[in-house]
Amino acid sequence: MPAAQPAATAKAKTSGRSPWRPWLLWAVAIATLAAIGSIKIPNYVTGEATIAARVNARDRLTMPRAGMIRIRVERNSEVALGDVIAEIDSPELAQQIAAAELGLEQAAGGLQAAEQNLVLAQTRWNASQQETAIARGRARDRQTDLRALSSGSGLPRSRQIQQEQAALEQEIRALHSQIASGQSEIAAAANEMTELIRQLDHKRQVYDERYKLVDREVLSANHPMVEGLRTEILDLERRIQAAKDRQQTQQHGIAETHQ
Known about the structure:
- The chain contains 5 helices and 2 strands; from the N terminus they run ααββααα.
- It is rod-shaped, with a radius of gyration of 45 Å.
- It has helices at residues 5-14, 21-37, 91-151, 159-215, 224-258; strands spanning 68-71, 86-89.
């Protein structure tokens, strides 16, 4: 029995924990955190762009807008010309594109209204020009009749002739008043067309601003938004030039009417 006591004492000493074990665990944890903190993590997003081939060199792409990136290729994999490497969904960019499309629709609506007003002004000017030509013809006829009546040989200077002459003069004055009214209508139509052309120029500036806004968003050259905007701008310039040509034709017609 006394011989078994040293064995029990040795077992109790062997089962005790080392006092340095917690400190070793803390040291391992700190070293692990330090190793993780030393790893460099990119804090930027890349976007669609064209990269020139370079030997033993890397290119870095940056995006002006934040977004969610989706990688389309594996790490260190080979890609061919035209392959999609990554895609980025940017809510901010999508919102600006939507705003540009809305502004484009509003500008197109304003352009359509301005063109309708221009057609109405053209119609009023044509009607006024026809009325002026008719009034001038009638005035010339009445003046011819008055001169023939005044210079006719053998016609007595009776009260009837004087009344007829007064009536003709009054009609001539009325015709001249009608001509002046027609000329005022022509001038008003010309001024209105000038204002419409100014509005068309303003719409072209709005289109240019929308194009610049879309262009700053790093869109590809064949993007539908860019192609559609370019087509609208070219069509707007053609319509503005046509409106200017019509205005020059009207001014030429007014000059011929005064002759």
